[in-house]
## 1
Amino acid sequence: MNLQVNLLRVEERRRPGGLVARTLIRASAVVGGAGVLLYAVYCGLAYEQASRELHGVEARWRQLEPDFKRAEELIGRHKALSRQIGEIAAFSNAQIKVALRLRALAEIVPAHVQLTSLDWNQKHVNVQGEPMRQYLVNISGRTGGARADQTVRDFIAAIRGLPPAADFGTITPGGFSLASLDSKAEAESLFEVRAEFAPRRLK
């Protein structure tokens, strides 16, 4: 028969669990320290890599900065010119060809008609909320003879018959009256014709 006798005092005895706990703590400390060291090394390498990339980007930027500033200037200039072109296009679209119409008008004036004034006016109007420009023309003149009224009607018909490139829009008689002349002179009649153009877009 085998007997095992523990000769240690009670206060000298050690529990196995305490040894295991201390071993685990030491191992955790070693592993944690190694992890922190590795992380520090990784951060250092990453910092060096980022610094190299930053220096490279800064060097590249110093090369590109003059071109970038020049490009910004060109973009600003392009926008300004685009606005000017838009304004000129709007102005051009809103205009009418006066010279062409004056030439056409001169060709249809009857021999017995003398034009005394030609007033061109314009006004801004809104058509369904859209700003537009409209031209108005007052044509004044005089004619003589017994058929003065028919001469004026023929003149108005001739204006209305002008083709679109030289048309005067909507034509309406503005007035017709006899001129106060000396009794010995040939009787003359004064007349007025109004022309109203269709509104033109300001764009």
## 2
Amino acid sequence: MTVLDKIIAYKKQEVIANKQLISIKELERKEYFNTKTKSLKKEIISSNKSGIIAEFKRKSPSKGIINDFSKVENVILGYEKAGVSGLSILTDSHFFGGSTNDILAAKKVNSQPILRKDFIVSEYQIIESKAMGADAILLIAAVLTKQEIKNFTKIAHSLGMEVLFEVHTQEELDKYIPEINLVGINNRNLKTFTVDFENSIKLSQQLPINTIKIAESGINDYKNIIALQKHGFNGFLIGENFMKTKSPENTCMEFIANLKNHNS
């Protein structure tokens, strides 16, 4: 059983438990459930934004503890000041040390669209995402069937949320559907954890020309972004490169300043 298999098995049990604690009707009465969402897609393609989706992540199964001292409010506020196009917040607690409260905290200090990054395996989690204030959700092709992707995308859109569809192999790309707002191509192989930009570029070339393409993982230099932009990538999800430092928000600000200086 791979780490991903373990995560999904745990996640399915977690969803069952959460349903017992909070019903869908209760979720629908939450503060943010009827709040209008913000478009991550529009922010990414905005000419005055960096295209960067900056992530708040405490740990991961492959890296262990990445950052267990930064406050979500400080980091998120700093990311916004740095000029990010959006925010990604990991809400898985067992494997990544996240919390749904992190999104709630971020909503209080931030005006950028928020991607809930988690392992979505149930309609319940999509409704839960809207209730906590997420503007977009992540759907991982590796753990979902094409029919599930269709169903979950339809539900997310009906609630006003966008979908970031993540792939990292040809087999996963075959699950793509035209209704998807954003396609994230993971540069890191989920089995070997090696980073391969060339694989991502090859996969991206098979997508429709109007697809908003997001490069994920392994981006540790603004020059990576410049190279990927030449191959049609619009957005760039960066987490560990910022979070592993003493001040993620300042690292992000410096990164974006270097990128802007190069492009000006």
## 3
Amino acid sequence: MLGVAKKNIVLIMADDIAYDNNFGAYGARESWTPRLDQLAKEGITFDHAYSTPKCTPSRVKIMTGRSGIRNYIGFGKLAASEVTFAHMLKKAGYKTHVAGKWQLDDKGGTATNAAGFDTWFLWNTKLGRGSRYWEPDFDVNGKRVVYGKDDYGPDLCVDSILEFIGNNKGEPFFAYYPMLLAHGPFETTPDSEARDRKNPQKNFEDMVKYMDKCVGRIVDGLQEMGLAENTVLLFCTDNGTNRVLTYESFGEVVDGKKGVPHDRGTHSPLIVYAPDTVPAGARCADIIDFSDVLPTLAEIGNAKLPDVELDGRSFWPQCVGKEGNPREWIFQYYWPKEWSWIPAELGEKELIWVHNQSYKLHGNGLFYDIVNDREELNPIPLERMTSEQRDLYEKFKEAIKTMPETNLEYQKNGGRGAS
């Protein structure tokens, strides 16, 4: 399907940016992301891709292809028993590297050297947990390195990825870049006019622009090394925008919904760029779940899927202009870290829901039109549903029954607040 040579893979996941937060490819009147907008013009843009509302569960899900109801063990942890996409691709002959934010090796979690990566350059491991931006503190292949006051962490991560690619351009490689940007603290970037920590809103804008610049550096590096035509680059984000920030979304000013199980807490951009392989300027309305990334990478890399119960399905056929096997719905599981962020009507226990592009059913029976009610303020009562809505309501109820009833780790740890 992909020819004799395996495709190289670069997976980039930005931190804390919703799909409608000034991405020109997603309709923003003021775009902060010209490089990503160009990738969308030269690749495919997915309009309905979904992460989870928070960083750790998104990282666990994207790396394992499994719903959190099966394998989430708490904030800052990846179960050591889990098979990651790095394990899978390494078995298929790929060199593997990760640079950026880890946050998965707290008590009972998995260290990078056990997660399938040959090399790494990471912030937030047991070794490197100081600053992530200026004068950063990194775990470099098992050695703690603290850089100088004029060194900027995101630049160092990109340097690490480009060095890895350059060292392995003669064989298939997988580079995973879980970005530091644009998570708080909201500090200035090397392109900011002055170093001023007192304006988080302006600094965040600068950080998103610099995030886009970092993506552009990787694309430029691939092109300069003659690797772009044999590389698939995927870009997404791990959850919505920080709740202390505001931004313009489709003509209205909104606040961030990171950590909240709403559309703006989980709706992620997804852009796939692969010159001469992915049709330029394509858009896809199919619904995509973060669990779909692992099987997609398996199909790109001709890798054998892990011998575990997976929840994802490949969307690579859609990337290359085929119909594929589109989902009718996705199932979401959320064990919140901050319960104060959760709408009271959803209760005080682990949260589950099923939705498609238009409607959403929570496990407690609340049913919403998420196109016209993105804040989920007006549940539709059963007696007021149209026949189409009632059919979806029943279908979503059955979909919930196809998944486990509860996360065993959640129950073992006493439920609410345990993570």
## 4
Amino acid sequence: MSWRPVLRLLAILAIMPVMLGQAGRFYPLLDNFNALLAPALILLCLLLALCLFRRDWLAGAIVAAGLLTGTIQLMVSLTSFPNMTGTGRLRVVTLSTWHANPDPAALARVIEAQAPDILLLQETNGTAAAMADTVLSGYFRLKSCPQKQCSEMIISRWPLRRIAAPDAAARKLPDILAARVDAPFGPVHVINVHLPRPTRVMAIPFRDELIAMASHIDDGRLIMAGDFNLGTGSLALADLARRSGLRRIEGFIPTYPANLPIPAFIAIDHIFAGREWVAATCHGVDASSSDHHGIACDLR
């Protein structure tokens, strides 16, 4: 049996997620394939090696075209940001606690070990609600609703207060929470985000509302972080950065899924920063019992 028909079929199937993601420029629903861009590129690298080993140049050319297209898109989406050196930093941590978290106490230990200055939590209206109310004792807290349990929380080492949406008559969006933090070096504005999955009808209006809020604040020290449900490399995520005027600073840190026997392979949690932040160093946070890993960034 000849390997060539099989390799060529595999090559065509392997580049389909990349090419369908490119079609997301015209059909936004296809942009969802870009969430798989990073694992797809790893698969294409392995398949290219196999094509070269088997000396199937046509299959290799197909794979190489998909690999080049996907690599360019992924590299364009990564912001170059100098690593932080020296002293004087602000540590920001974003973490989705998961509505059905089976061990919130383990999550609290992870958070305490990170010693954040500003902590942004999502999905705190589930089993992790009590943990979110008690973790980092002595910190200031802001919830996204007046009820005891809310879907989002901002926890800060320094005093903070809510920032209203730019349009007071606009629909209330409990999964977009903004605050001003009175840090010792001056005020920092923070937006905590949990956007709907891009397949849902309200995804685009929510993104538009988020961009409007970021534009309304228009502060060089603005930080926007959370669960965006948009993978690194997605066109919608790049559009969000362009229209908000912010830079995504964490690079590529896979955060989802974190509660399966396989490693996380999709990066859907992100941290954006305004123009006055000049350096950053970021790393993933093992979320222990959550379905998302977190992200911690030290900014200067």
